[in-house]
Amino acid sequence: MAWTRKDLIAMRDLEAAEILTLIDTADSLQEIATREIKKVPALRGKTIVNLFYEASTRTRTSFEIAGKWLSADVINFSALGSSASKGESLVDTAKNIEAMSPDVVVVRHPASGAAELLARELACSIVNAGDGAHEHPTQALLDLLTIREKKGHFEGLSAAIVGDVAHSRVARSNIHGMRKLGMTVTVAGPPTLIPPFVQELGVKVAYRLEDAIRDVDVIMMLRLQQERMTGGLIPSLREYSHYWGLTLDRLAAHARPDVLIMHPGPVNRGIELSPEVADGPYSVILDQVAKGVAVRMGVLFLLAGSKTGEAA
Ligand code: NCD
């Protein structure tokens, strides 16, 4: 399916065919990582601005690498040290950046809806790299590419998304993506970390780890988003990890032998995952990071590349 959108804001907006176009494009670009000279001319002369108002390691770095491998000029704009800390509004900052004629602005912001606001205000393409607890579409796309590569397909697969679902933009984007591609999804966590009405997104809910991980193909563990919690949602980290921490013993007792363990990072070892699980044979956490570069290349290419040409 041909890509026609100006922006990538939310998995909720996309049709299954559009999600597959994004994943297939990323898949075809993965091979660039194995080349001796990791550069193709697809975005030569294009300018990409990374506008990050929240901390990021993997996402910001992989957007930068992706842009550079496609020969774009990439500028990293961190809100710390910019005029945002002097009180300039997001829209004013973005209009000033737009005056410098970028082709794509990649934005991460603590407010849900920030990316959509910029998409409405600015003529250039906007990519949502995480807006509050709302969506993080490129994370879901890299998760989906990882799942397809390991399992070969989506239809009929099942996933458990475990932990702080309430504050997780990763969970929300994955729920939409997985459901549209024919997967079944169970979300699980302490009741205070499960959003009300989450069943309306077409998911099942479990309140015990053992129930969630039984017989699923994919277990996606989430970090407790303490920076988004207003307090009092879990009694203590110790108690949380006692009930919700994924250990080898729990996996052996309840999960399938071919289950995939995923985590968007950053991992809090010993809280949501034991180190043996994070580094163990079921874990595809580093595959996810590698796919992150391919997915961001695919997204940037579809938004800013020639609409007719091949990327590589
Ligand atoms: C996630 C994020 O920032 O939403 N990380 C990421 O992008 N890889 C998840 C998290 O911070 O827990």
Summarize the structure.
It contains eleven helices and nine strands. The protein has helices at residues 16-29, 58-69, 90-98, 114-121, 137-151, 169-180, 209-213, 237-244, 248-254, 275-278, 285-304, and strands spanning 47-52, 73-78, 104-109, 125-131, 158-162, 184-188, 204-206, 218-221, 260-262.
The helix content is 25-40%
* Estimated radius of gyration: 19 Å
CATH superfamily of the largest domain: Aspartate/ornithine carbamoyltransferase
Shape: globular
The helix tally amounts to: 11
Q: CATH first level of the largest domain: which class?
A: Alpha Beta
Describe this structure in words.
The structure is a single chain. This protein has 312 residues and is α/β, with parallel strands linked by helices. The protein has two domains: 11-136 and 292-304, Aspartate/ornithine carbamoyltransferase (Rossmann fold), CATH 3.40.50.1370; 138-288, 3-Layer(aba) Sandwich (Rossmann fold), CATH 3.40.50. It has helices spanning 16-29, 58-69, 90-98, 114-121, 137-151, 169-180, 209-213, 237-244, 248-254, 275-278, 285-304, and strands spanning 47-52, 73-78, 104-109, 125-131, 158-162, 184-188, 204-206, 218-221, 260-262. The strands form two sheets. Strands 7-6-5-8-9 form a five-stranded parallel beta sheet. A four-stranded parallel beta sheet has the order 2-1-3-4, sandwiched between helices. Bound molecules: N-carbamoyl-L-aspartate. N-carbamoyl-L-aspartate (NCD) binds next to helix 2 and helix 6. N-carbamoyl-L-aspartate binds next to helix 2 and helix 6.
